Every structure is written in structure tokens, then in C-alpha cells.
């Protein structure tokens, strides 16, 4: 097979940001398709979780993170792998930085298309639920559908603990989901409005005991990335034959607990974990 030299050497650098390690699911899904790219994963564990921070603090923090990382590392595109940070900060970040920034937001439009009983559940943080962005999104696409919303801040902690090697309590997950489980008609379509929740799909399926559509935004993210890096599906296939990339992962604070993540990080192809001290600009 003959491959153009320029195409063979093309290695876009994708920076993925989250407050925790929930964004690893997004990283893994993107990497399966774009295996030829270089990846930098940064999790802001010093400010974890963003769902408990104010809008102002989230925006200010992400500005500081991007300005700091930009001083040390080169990248071509940024993915905000956090629904809360995306709905709150993306529009502001795009005004400040010239590089492409892609956010992950709850896919209400797809959920409406999939729902059969017209009852849709949205699992996200209160910050996401109460954001103007989400209110406008629901108003635009919900139509005759009923959108039930549930704060899942406690589930985020459960997922983090899962990736730190702890077992997930199905009883606790069921308790958090009880407001929906006790309804006469439960949602038949659930929007996973937080990247952490993607790690709990198996637990959700055990709890609901029925065929439910679980909606996330990973396909939209891939489409956006392909537009930004301007590469065809044909060239993706050719480049996937040359996957010899060492990807890097960074955190904002290091502790003995943070190091407990290494077994999970190794599973995702990372060999080391380093700290980047975030500067306040």
C-alpha cells in the first residue's frame, strides 16, 4: 500500500480536559477511530468536581488551565470532556482563544428522536441543568416530550471511586435513581449528561430492567473533530495502520490517592502521570 508522505506524518494533537477521569471514556472512543492522533489528557483534580463550582469559577479556571498548558505543550484542538464545563464556559473560551474548542453537551435532539413514550430523563449536575444553555436547548428540541431532570453529583463520586479501583454499590446507584424508578411511567430514553456516567451504563441497565436508550454525545464529538482536522474517512483508515504514539496524561495536583489511578491509566495506554501546576493569570 502506497501512502502519501504528508498523510503518513500527519499527527494532530488533541488535548482533552475534565475535572476528573470521566473524560477517559470520551478519549477512548475517539482514539478508537483516530488512533493516529497524539493525545494529551488533563484532569483538574484540584478543582474536582466542576459541578460543585460556580459558573464564574469554572470559566476562570479553564482560562487559566488553557493558558498554562499552552506555555508548555503544543496542541491543535481542545475537547472539553465535561458537560458542566462545556455548557458554562465554551462560548467564553472561544472568544479568548484562537485554537478550536469542542464541548460536550447533552444530546436532547437525539433523545427526542429515540423516545417512544415521550418521557426523557436527563442525568446531569445542577449547574448543567440550571444553565441558560440547557434551558434553551430543551426549549428548542423537547417539543411534546416530558424532560425529567435529576442531579447526579453523587454518581460522579461513585465513578471516580470505580476508576480508583473501588467496587460500585448497585444499591447506592439504585437509591440515587429512586425518584425515577418509583414513577408509574419511567423514561424510556436517558441522556447521560455527564461523561462520568458513561462508566455506569451496565449498572443502569441492571437497575431499570427494560430496554432503554442511553444517549451520549460521542458521535457528535467525532464529527466536530473530523471537520477541525480536515481529514477524510479514507485517510483515517490508512493512518490507523501507523499507531505508534505515546500519549500523555497530566493532573493539577499529585497525591498518594492520585497515584492509585495508575492501573486504570495503564489500561488506557498511558505509562506515566505528571503534574502541571496551574497559574492564575
From TrEMBL:
This is Glutamate racemase. NCBIfam families: glut_race. GO terms for biological process: cell wall organization; peptidoglycan biosynthetic process; regulation of cell shape. PANTHER family: GLUTAMATE RACEMASE. It catalyses: L-glutamate = D-glutamate. Pathway: Cell wall biogenesis; peptidoglycan biosynthesis. The active site is at residues 82, 194. Provides the (R)-glutamate required for cell wall biosynthesis. It comes from the Bacteria. One of its GO terms (molecular function) is glutamate racemase activity. Substrate binds at residues 18-19, 50-51, 83-84, 195-196. SUPFAM superfamilies: Aspartate/glutamate racemase (SSF53681). The keyword Amino-acid biosynthesis does not apply. Its EC number is 5.1.1.3.
